[in-house]
Design brief:
About 15% of the residues lie in helices and about 35% in strands. With about 600 residues, the chain is mainly beta. The protein has 2 domains: about 240 residues, Rossmann fold, CATH 3.40.50.1460; about 290 residues, Methylamine Dehydrogenase, Chain H.
Length: about 600
């Protein structure tokens, strides 16, 4: 199976870290700025629920009651150097101020109302950092107090036009605010209690996440939209004269904010009367027939594997006994398919982007976010060899069938083949973009079953087959999509499947170059194919996509045979070598294992 493909600029990237920055300012040296009760309490409560591994799972940084320079440094440190797959959440609770030109500033402890440019944190500057940040998933939450016309127990300044101020060109940015541009954002009622009341808005958000009440559809997940809907209802129910707002900018799909502590609530659907009668029958033959799948060749869901981190890579061992899963926390785990027994856990410094077994099952190759390719003893879990990136971002790898060679490819546009025993580079292959005159990034790799050929997928929209011994180019295939994201040989080595950035997959005859099959995930463009694989008997083509689905296609006529859905991007789909299993892995932290009929591919 190819590794996690490099993504074009349009779609969202592979999953990464979940990181949160919580900034709150309650005390101010400027006598013209009212001291606030809520932010410090809000920050502590929100940080706790976001950091809870069973709820938010974020790595949280807090900045409480600091001067403007420290806040600016903290925000910049938080946003720079992030990966494209990271999920970033920034929370701000403080006074908000406007200068004479109606520019918005967030107040720090040392902010002066008459010197906002020098002592405040300008919203436009924060936006600029968000625009330049590589992370494609950004959540900005503003529960800000705006000075000016104060009301009892309120914090506010009118007419801030927040939507206009935070419009950006980045993808996947969601902005939540505690009120509209012309409303105040209320704290709780004044109290003499030792523990101060929190903001109505943030208190509702924290409560919804902590209890799971924000999981309004009871699927076990609290997405940003779920949280907003819950907070909106709670703020209105509290009688506060404010209306929480939400804006989306270039957002695709749903962003998972937290897991519900209550877990998913499953309500069984009533059985049809005819089926109930069959199950209640005293005759075993009738009961057994009733329980069979509706179609003779339909795979059955064997089990769902749930992990605490996003799953980004998947591979079967050659004997089909073990499933290797790579996650965003840097762990590659081996798990027995039928029993769920866990084998070695291979730790990496960053998310695991690709996995591949040697043909004898003794070795497992991995590649992680820093581009280092590693070879492990699959039995003991000990690292045997590391091939460092040496400044090149390797994001894809493949084991040769003989187990003696390892191929890597990545951002520099060069595919490399290494000696898997000593880590010595044997040869390089490179495809150039005709228009740009530079090497086209390698998005995927696959060895032919006999190890003679190496196929590469490129950002120039082509798939290339190379002689794996000499590096000579054998054939180039032009895909209909602008990028080719992944490639995979058929088990007999006669065909090559290539998936593109717009959801289209083509299967070509490697001798003639003729396209023998073309299928597409329906819907809008930019539904990049994350992985492709042909079944051991060549009967089925499996594809996984950014559109949260994996699909199995009939290679005879291209009809869709099976659709497997996840809650988020499906990073990998793979058939077991014996044709008995089909497995998918997803950013939603689950792996689905499907049992194919008769221990073979469905129609075999």
């Amino acid at each position: 199976m190819p590794g996690w493909p490099a993504m074009p600029p349009a779609p969202d990237p592979p999953p990464g870290s979940r990181l949160a920055l919580v900034v709150a300012t309650s005390t101010y040296t400027d006598p013209g700025l009212r001291q606030l009760r809520a932010p410090a309490r809000d920050a502590d409560d929100l940080a706790q629920v976001l950091a809870d591994p069973g709820i938010g799972g974020f790595t949280v940084t807090t900045v409480i009651d600091q001067p403007a320079q420290q806040i600016r440094l903290a925000i910049e440190d938080f946003l720079i150097g992030r990966g494209t797959g990271d999920l970033l959440l920034v929370y701000l609770s403080c006074h908000g101020l406007l200068d004479a030109y109606r520019r918005l500033y967030f107040a720090a402890t040392d902010t002066r109302k008459d010197r906002l440019g020098a002592t405040g944190v300008e919203a436009a500057w924060v936006l600029d950092l968000l625009e330049r940040c590589r992370a494609r998933r950004q959540v900005l939450i503003l529960d800000s107090c705006f000075s000016g016309a104060f009301a009892h127990g309120a914090k506010g300044e009118a007419d801030l036009s927040l939507q206009g101020r935070f419009v950006g060109q980045g993808r996947g940015r969601v902005v939540l605010t505690a009120s509209t541009a012309t409303e105040y954002s209320f704290e709780g009622d004044p109290t003499e209690a030792v523990t101060p009341a929190g903001s109505v808005f943030t208190a509702a958000l924290v409560e919804g996440l902590r209890t799971g009440a924000a999981d309004t559809d009871r699927d076990g997940c609290v997405y940003v939209d779920d949280a907003y809907a819950y907070v909106f209802d709670q703020v209105k129910a509290a009688g506060a004269a404010q209306t929480p707002q939400r804006w989306l900018y270039e957002a695709e799909g749903r962003i998972l904010l937290a897991r519900s502590p209550a877990g998913p609530v499953i309500t069984p659907a009533p059985l049809p009367e005819s089926l109930r009668a069959g199950l209640d029958s005293p005759h075993p033959r009738i009961r057994g027939t009733t329980a069979e799948p509706a179609t003779r060749d339909a795979p059955a869901l064997f089990r769902t594997v749930r992990k605490s981190q996003s799953l980004s890579a998947i591979a079967f061992s050659p004997d089909s006994r073990w499933l290797a899963l790579g996650d965003s926390a840097g762990a590659a785990r081996l798990e027995e398919v039928t029993s769920g027994t866990e084998g070695p856990i291979l730790q990496h410094p960053g998310p695991v982007l690709g996995l591949a077994f040697s043909q004898d099952g003794r070795w497992l190759a991995t590649i992680d976010e820093d581009g280092t390719a590693r070879i492990w003893d699959a039995i003991s879990g000990k690292e045997r060899l590391a091939v460092p990136s040496r400044g090149v971002e390797y994001v894809h790898m493949a084991f040769a069938p003989d187990g003696r060679r390892l191929a890597t490819g990545g951002a520099d546009g060069i595919g490399r083949i290494w000696d898997a025993s000593y880590g010595l580079e044997q040869l390089q292959v490179s495809e150039f973009e005709e228009a740009a005159g530079r090497a086209a990034q390698v998005n995927g790799l696959s060895f032919s079953p006999d190890g003679r050929w190496l196929a590469t997928a490129h950002t120039s929209g082509v798939a290339v087959i190379w002689d794996a011994s000499t590096g000579q180019k054998r054939r180039t295939y032009q895909h209909t999509d602008p990028w080719v994201d992944c490639v995979s040989f058929s088990p007999d080595g006669r065909f090559l499947a290539a998936g593109g950035m717009n959801g289209r997959t083509q299967v070509v005859d490697i001798e003639t170059g003729r396209v023998v099959l073309a299928v597409a995930h329906p819907g809008e463009e930019s539904q990049s194919i994350m992985s492709v694989e042909l079944s051991p008997d060549g009967r089925w083509l499996a594809t996984s996509s950014f559109d949260t689905s994996a699909r199995v296609w009939d290679t005879r006529d291209g009809h869709e045979h099976l659709k497997i859905t996840h809650e988020h991007i499906v990073g990998g789909v793979v058939f077991s070598p014996d044709g008995h299993w089909l497995a998918t892995c997803s950013v939603d932290q689950t792996c689905q294992v499907w049992q194919l009929r008769s221990g073979r591919a469905p129609h075999a």
